[in-house]
Specification:
CATH class of chain B: Mainly Alpha
Largest interface: A-B, 52 and 46 residues
CATH architecture of chain B: Up-down Bundle
Number of domains of chain B: 1
Number of domains of chain A: 2
Structural class of chain A: alpha+beta
Oligomer: heterodimer
Radius of gyration of chain B: 20 Å
Largest sheet of chain A: 5 strands, mixed
Number of strands of chain A: 7
Strand content of chain A: 5-15%
Bound molecules: protoporphyrin IX containing FE, FE2/S2 (inorganic) cluster
Order of helices and strands of chain B: HHHHHHHHH
Helix content of chain B: over 70%
Number of strands of chain B: 0
Strand content of chain B: under 5%
CATH architecture of the largest domain in chain A: Orthogonal Bundle
Number of helices of chain B: 9
Chain lengths: 252, 223
């Protein structure tokens, strides 16, 4: 199949960017979206042009590195799919595809389609961990965990931190990401101990980074390649309120 | 932890304030509507209702001050949050493909138009009503005041527009607030979504019915 690509090109964070059109010729329907970009880049390089910079790593939908907005949808319109797992058979021959980077103030463009997502790292560093040294891997079921709690934690732990929630949100809010990270530790016995401190610190860091606020539009949930539920944001709001009340009580 | 910061400066604190103040305002809006619908029971009933409210000045003023505080907090948090949201996306997308509902994308606009209506409405009926006449029992003739106002198509039209927008505002707001307060998880989310839709329609039908009825000739015997 042959396609026209309208791709965002930008040298670095300081210089203005613009859209440039490219022809993608002889693309197989079995290629992934990123493999299609590889083909375009190879032809660009043989012509002596700069290849299109985009992020990828595992290319099997588990690392969260790939991050392109395809025709207005982060990772493309396909449900529960990362860009690296999106196949070209979902596009039509002759189609024009617009490809943009994640757009959010806390995610400055590094180059072309690559953005700097270290704001997410700083949020994790602020509290997305368990302080106790755990030693070696414990025996399975050494700490009994009720099945519903384990399920909730696993649902939250699906988050691969790609940032599609921020990219999809009209407010560039990171609440789906932060709430998944807060919840996946907060519901487990090992993580419960630091639950209050964690939610206060992570929300504080999220605000400092300059992300927007949730308006409950549900766009994040719809765009999430791991189908993280909006329920986690509700859960985080509840945990936050409880933590504020408890720490106010303790202070007085 | 700084408590002032955690409540008034943080994103979640402001959402909590917006949700709580919104919930209080919803309580008022529903009570107000039910009270006003008594107009369909006739001049006697609605005028007696007005006199009843005025007969408890302390309670009335407490409610007024409480409502004013809620409106203030709601608008302050709405504007603060929306400004942060705009700042968070300085470069817009070339292609937008929104999965967000119309109501959720236009909260600030439905809110601001409702606000301008509230100001007009208060001057029209509460602060400086043009019609100060009394009925046979010497009570403020609310019935006639309302019929007089809504006989002007512009006044009735603004009322209808504002309440339509309020219904839209609440069809989203009344579900979103439960998430802000940390209550919408699992099946409760679906309940709140249905509840918000029902509330939106109730407000629309209930409030719009009064000016519509007047435009269609209800109460013209007092003109
Ligand atoms: C009778 C009047 C009003 C009622 C009953 C009402 C009710 C509500 C409710 C229940 C919410 C949801 C809160 C949440 O998500 O936690 C909400 C949200 C909102 N309201 Fe109002 N509201 C009213 C007037 C206004 C006014 C005058 C404004 C104007 C500034 C406004 C602006 C907003 C905005 C911008 C949001 C969404 C904020 C966001 O993005 O999360 N509202 N409202
Ligand atoms: S490259 Fe790892 S998820 Fe796409």
């Amino acid at each position: 199949m042959n396609l026209t690509l309208k791709v965002w090109r930008q040298k670095n964070a300081d210089e203005p960017g613009q859209f440039v059109s490219y022809q993608a010729k002889g693309i197989s329907q079995d290629m992934s979206f990123l493999e299609m970009l590889d083909v375009v880049n190879e032809s660009l390089m043989t012509e002596g042009q700069e290849p299109i910079a985009f992020d990828s790593d595992c290319r099997e939908g588990i690392c969260g590195t790939c991050s392109v907005v395809i025709n207005g949808a982060p990772h493309g319109e396909q449900k529960a799919t990362t860009a690296c797992q999106l196949h070209m058979r979902h596009f039509n021959d002759g189609e024009t595809i617009t490809i943009e980077p994640w757009r959010a103030k806390p995610f400055p463009v590094i180059r072309d389609l690559r953005v700097d997502r270290s704001a997410f790292d700083r949020i994790i560093q602020s509290g997305g961990f368990i302080s106790a040294s755990t030693g070696g891997a414990p025996d399975a079921n050494a700490i009994p965990i009720p099945k519903p709690d384990a399920d909730t934690a696993m649902d939250a732990a699906q988050c691969i931190g790609c940032g599609a929630c921020v990219a999809a949100c009209k407010n560039a809010s990171a609440m789906l990401f932060v709430s998944a990270k807060v919840s996946h530790l907060g519901v487990l016995p090992q993580g419960k101990v630091e639950k209050d401190r964690r939610v206060l610190a992570m929300v504080n860091q999220m605000d400092k980074e300059g992300f927007g606020n949730c308006t409950v539009t549900g766009s994040c949930e719809a765009a999430c390649p791991k189908e993280i539920s909006l329920d986690f944001i509700s859960r985080m709001n509840r945990d936050y309120a409880a933590a504020v009340v408890k720490s106010a009580w303790n202070q007085s | 932890m700084n408590i002032y910061h955690a409540i008034f400066r943080s994103s979640l604190g402001k959402k909590f304030i917006m949700g709580l103040s919104g919930l209080a305002l919803v309580g008022f809006v529903v009570g107000h509507m039910v009270g006003n619908l008594q107009i369909f029971l006739g001049q006697e009933k609605i005028n007696a209702y007005g006199a009843f409210l005025k007969s408890m000045p302390k309670l009335l003023w407490a409610a007024r001050i409480g409502l004013l505080a809620c409106v203030g907090l709601h608008i302050w948090s709405a504007i603060a949050l929306v400004r942060e949201n705009r700042r968070a996306r300085p470069v817009a997308y070339q292609v937008t493909r929104s999965t967000a509902s119309f109501a959720s994308r236009t909260m600030i606009w439905s809110g601001l138009i409702v606000l301008s209506f509230i100001v007009y409405h208060l001057f029209d009926f509460t602060i400086t009503p043009e019609f100060k006449g009394v009925d046979e029992s010497g009570r403020h003739d609310i019935y006639k005041m309302v019929i007089l106002s809504f006989s002007h198509p512009l006044s009735a039209g603004f009322y209808i527009l504002a309440n339509t927008l309020l219904a839209i505002h609440l069809s989203h707001g009344f579900q979103s607030l439960f998430q802000s307060l940390g209550l919408s998880t699992g099946r409760f989310r679906h309940w709140f979504q249905s509840l918000a839709l029902v509330l939106g329609w109730l407000i629309f039908v209930g409030n719009v019915s009064i000016p519509t009825a007047v435009l269609l000739g209800f109460g013209k015997e007092v003109l």
